[in-house]
Specification:
- With about 600 residues, the chain is of the alpha+beta class.
- Strands 1, 3, 7, 8, 9, 10, 11, 12, 13, 14, 15, 19, 20 and 22 form a 14-stranded antiparallel β-sheet that branches. The chain has a four-stranded mixed β-sheet with strand order 5-18-17-16. A three-stranded antiparallel β-sheet has the order 2-23-24.
- Helix 4 (about 80-100) runs antiparallel to helix 5 and helix 5 (about 115-145) packs parallel to helix 12.
- The chain is about 30% helix and about 25% strand.
- It has helices at about 5-10, 55-65, 70-75, 80-100, 115-145, 165-175, 180-185, 225-235, 430-445, 470-480, 490-510, 540-565, and strands at about 105, 150, 185-195, 200-205, 210, 250, 255, 260-270, 275-285, 290-295, 300-310, 315-325, 340-345, 365-385, 385-395, 400-405, 405-410, 430, 450-455, 455-460, 520, 525-535, 595-605, 605-610.
- The protein folds into two domains: about 5-185 and about 535-610, no CATH class; about 200-525, no CATH class.
- It is elongated, with a radius of gyration of 50 Å.
Length: about 600
């Protein structure tokens, strides 16, 4: 009698169909772990299983020859590969966006912020990596059971931390916890300035000086009252500095300008104390000793003197302790356009009644020579928080006279370009009338002296009486000058510096009809905005997580192909029909014993999970 169809089939354990029409079977783990596959006896069929163990050949052939698109996608890890590609693309997008706004103003998008965009990109990128890693670790579980017999409990508690590629995937999952914080730490903010297109920024400059004031009489050159007034302010107004700051407008309180070139005045001083000579004479009839302290030039002397009355028990002193001279032979500034100014004075002036006090140290005499000369200066101006400032870029001092009928001008032609604020063929000029009026001012304003008597000081003029020479001598002898020390001789140095700054401001601010080359240079008004800076070191962890995920995926694909097993990944279908000892009882809860061992192998074209 021929056996029926069921008896002719090879007895196997109960099975269930899963991906790739593959079947899975389990047996009790009493078999030895090292038993070859050919010696493993097939499991007894369960009496209540009525479904044939062998599927219809036509269907099997059809399924093998025409696998569905979804099975192919799963077999070749298409979703996982696409997820890793998407993750890498999002990381690249994060880098591109951040590089685009690095050290630039914070973008003002309508509906989202830069942080939220980066957060969304990083979240999706991390999710893609974790998806690929999870699927890879799930697949490595089946690779793990394909190598040899394993405890059945490992199906539910696959210890990936000890399994090479699975260990890398586990590390990626742990590090992914810090993925978002690291990405957020990429972005930092700082305040900075940008140009305001509606703002105003102008500053004065000038390339031609014509400083002649109203005419007085024939042959007299009188300084422009605006320049003269500014000079007086620089000396007598010790509380203000408006006389030194050129005219400017800055609507935002923060402005910048490109390099500017303008004609200016510059002061220079040299200490001539080592040139001083002393000569003493005594009148025996009056018992008065006179000591002269002087600078001996090639054509004349500049001298100061003091006297001591030896009859007086207090040994009173008097004389002319302060002398300021102009139009005298120069010691240092011999080729100057404007005559230098010389001063002889003690470094400190004591009161007249104390000069003869032998217990007090006698004053130390000093001498200075100072000069003011025109120059062309290139500078970069700026206003920061309402404070005007300038940075000097270059100074040009070489000028030449331009002769013509009726007089001569003084011209500067610095060999500069636009990088220093000079247009091609630009010329800076002092007119003849300007030169003569400035010379007249210095000759009439600075020379003078202070006469000391037992009754106090008396100030003496030695120049023409057009300017406030008395006031200047009082200032030098007894008062303080802005930015100056109390040393008498050094006050001239400070005074000359202040005069040069005051003249420079007046020259630049001049907008009279006699100065047609007066200009205002336009700059940029700046407004404060929030800028973005990127700390690129924080990108290392997201890139590391992605690399670990990629290695895990590639390792899983390689091990799956090498083991020749289906790509079940995290599917639960293959373990739905796991039985023990051929009984009808499935493991419930944690009833799986540690002694139950199974192995994943191929038998008759099917994958079998058996002990």
């Amino acid at each position: 009698m021929e056996p029926n169809a069921r008896e002719s089939e090879t007895p196997e354990s109960p099975v269930t169909r899963v991906n790739d029409s593959t079947e899975i079977t389990t047996q009790h783990a009493n078999q030895q772990e090292d038993t070859p596959q050919s010696q493993i006896p097939p499991a007894e069929p369960h009496p209540e299983v009525n479904e044939p163990l062998v599927s219809d050949p036509v269907k099997d052939k059809s399924n093998k020859t025409k696998p569905s698109i979804w099975k192919l996608i799963s077999k070749f890890f298409i979703w996982e590969v696409l997820a890793m590609l998407l993750s890498s693309g999002l990381l690249v997008a994060i880098v591109v966006v951040l590089a685009r706004y690095n050290n630039r103003p914070q973008p003002t998008w309508r509906l989202v912020s830069l942080n939220s965009v980066i957060s969304w990109l990083s979240t999706i990128s991390k999710g893609c990596v974790l998806f690929s890693v999870s699927e890879g670790i799930g697949q490595l579980k089946w690779v793990w059971f394909a190598r040899k017999s394993r405890p059945l409990m490992d199906l539910g508690t696959f210890d990936g931390a000890k399994r090479h590629f699975a260990a890398l995937g586990s590390v990626a999952v742990i590090l992914a916890i810090a993925f978002d914080p690291f990405v957020q730490n990429l972005i930092h903010y700082y305040p900075s300035l940008i140009a305001d297109p509606l703002g105003t920024a102008i500053v004065s400059s000038n390339s031609l000086l014509d400083a002649l004031g109203p005419p007085l009489d024939r042959g007299t050159y009188y300084l422009d009252p605006a320049i003269k007034a500014n000079i007086y302010n620089s000396l007598f107004d010790s509380e203000s500095s408006t006389w030194s700051t050129p005219r400017y407008t800055c609507s935002s309180g923060n402005c910048t300008w490109d390099p500017i070139a303008t004609i200016e005045m510059r002061a220079s001083c040299t200490n001539l104390t080592n040139q001083l000579q002393t000569k003493t004479s005594k009148n025996y009839n009056t018992s008065i000793t006179t000591t002269a302290v002087y600078l001996k030039g090639p054509t004349g002397n500049v001298s100061a003197n003091y006297q001591v009355d030896t009859k007086d028990t207090a040994h009173s002193m008097w004389g002319n302790p302060v002398i300021i001279a102009s139009n005298k032979p120069a010691f240092v500034y011999k080729d100057s356009m404007i005559d230098p100014i010389q001063i002889i004075a003690p470094d400190r002036l004591p009161a007249a009644e104390t000069w003869g006090d032998e217990t007090l140290p006698q004053p130390k005499w000093q001498a200075f020579e100072c000069n003011i000369a025109p120059v062309v200066r290139s500078f970069r101006a700026g206003v920061t928080r309402g404070e005007y400032h300038e940075e000097t870029l270059a100074i040009w001092t070489n000028g030449s006279y331009e002769s013509f009928v009726g007089g001569s001008n003084y011209n500067f032609k610095p060999p500069w370009g636009l990088d220093l604020g000079v247009e091609p063929n630009k010329q800076f000029t002092l007119t003849k009338r300007s030169i003569m009026s400035i010379r007249s001012f210095f000759t009439g304003f600075f020379p003078g002296g202070a006469e000391l008597t037992p009754f106090g000081f008396k100030f003496i003029e030695t120049g023409i009486s057009l300017y406030a020479s008395h006031d200047l001598m009082q200032l030098i002898a007894l008062s303080n000058i802005t930015n100056c020390t109390t040393r008498t001789t050094e006050k001239l140095h400070c005074a000359m510096d202040n005069v040069a700054l005051a003249m420079t401001k007046a020259i630049r601010d001049s907008n009279s009809s006699s100065s047609p080359n007066f200009t205002t240079t336009t700059g940029q008004a700046m407004i404060a905005t929030t800028h973005v800076t990127i700390h690129w070191q924080w990108i290392t962890l997201p890139v590391l997580v992605w690399l670990l995920g990629l290695i895990t995926l590639l390792g899983t694909m390689w091990k799956t192909r090498r083991a020749g097993i289906p790509t079940w990944k995290n599917e639960t279908m293959p373990i739905l029909s796991v039985y023990r000892d051929g009984s009808n009882e499935k493991p419930q809860g944690d009833q799986v014993l540690e002694t139950d061992r199974v192995r994943f192998y191929e038998s008759e074209g099917k994958m079998v999970l058996s002990g």
